[in-house]
Amino acid sequence: MGFLVAVTTYFLWATCLLQGAKSSGSKEPEVEPDFTEPIPNVTVSVGRDVKLACVVENLGSYRIAWIHTDRYTLLTLQNRVITRNPRFSITHNGHRTWTLYIREVEERDSGEYMCQINTSPMKSQSGFISVVGYFIQEIDGNNVMRL
Ligand SMILES: *[C@@H]1O[C@H](CO)[C@@H](O)[C@H](O)[C@H]1NC(C)=O
């Protein structure tokens, strides 16, 4: 089952990659898209909402996908949510920022979240979500206090 999901996921994404390559095959030299800032690592309590932002410039005709690497799940593609899990959503704002939202996090949401651009070779950047079973208060971007 997990294997099947993995295969389907990578097939879907490979299809997009080919389409991306084709649509960028014009004669005009195109600036390659790139990430402008790292994706943060987030610690969050069970049941809270969390978001991760992927900031990309010069996206052009390329596409952005969010993947939950640990679960081999393709979550979103551009503005579309691909996973059937209704707790996931995506927004695209400021032209360059693709924000993945997870509502009411569960422990199984922990792990690596990868933002991929379908350049060839593919570019990616990851952030890690740690879901903890107790309440925390964020002190600053990197430190949390256990309550
Ligand atoms: C997030 O955590 C990973 C592995 O634990 C680390 O390699 C990476 O540098 C961290 N990213 C940030 C933005 O701190």
Structural commentary:
With 147 residues, this protein is mostly beta strands. The protein has one domain: Immunoglobulins (Immunoglobulin-like, Sandwich). It has 1 helix and 12 strands, in the order αββββββββββββ. A hairpin with a 4-residue loop joins strand 4 and strand 5 (73-77). The longest helix is centred in the N-terminal third of the chain and has 22 residues, at 2-23. The radius of gyration is 16 Å and the shape is globular. The structure holds 2-acetamido-2-deoxy-beta-D-glucopyranose. Residues 38, 40-41, 128 line the site of 2-acetamido-2-deoxy-beta-D-glucopyranose.
Q: What's the short version?
A:
Helices cover 15% and strands 41% of the residues. With 147 residues, it is mainly beta.
Radius of gyration: 16 Å
Give me the number of helical elements. 1
Quantity of strands, as a count: 12
- Shape summary: globular
The ordered H/E elements are HEEEEEEEEEEEE
Separation of termini? 39 Å
Number of spatially distinct domains: 1
Question: Which strand order spans the largest sheet, edge to edge or round the barrel?
Answer: 2-10-9-4-5-6
CATH topology: Immunoglobulin-like
> Roughly what percent helix?
10-25%
The overall average pLDDT, rounded, is 84
Task: Specify the structural class.
Answer: mainly beta
Low-confidence stretches: none
What hetero molecules are in the model? 2-acetamido-2-deoxy-beta-D-glucopyranose
- Give the CATH H-level superfamily: Immunoglobulins
Report the top-level CATH class.
Mainly Beta
Biggest sheet descriptor:
6 strands, mixed
- Portion in beta strands: 35-45%
The CATH architecture assignment turns out to be Sandwich
